[in-house]
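Our consortium's second objective concerns turning raw sequence data into structural hypotheses that experimental partners can test. To show how far this objective has progressed, the report includes one record in full. It was chosen at random from the queue rather than selected for favorable results. The single chain below, 96 residues long, was entered without modification.
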Amino acid sequence: TGDSTAFPFSPAPLNFDLPVLRDMCASVPGMTLDHVYLVLVALDEYDGRRALGDLVDLIDDARWPIQIIDAMIEYGFIRFAPGYAFDASIPVERVC
């Protein structure tokens, strides 16, 4: 029914080991495990979905925050919600 109270967000457990996380972070200059953690916590606080602009603002200390989001998509942590135009308000969803 779409009622988040009846069906609370519950991500699948992360199935990536530390070397994979390190590889992902190494794929973007300046990306840290702290950035990954901040994005995932922010998504969890909003039932697994948040606007791209909110996440970029959250990790604005990074040199290329959009590339961090892109790496997290490539490694299967998050995705852009289908059916939306790419702009600051596109929903980003937690996959795992």
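The partners drew two points from this record. The mean pLDDT is 87. The helical segments are 18-26, 33-45, 52-58, 65-74. Both points have been shared with the crystallography group to help prioritize constructs.
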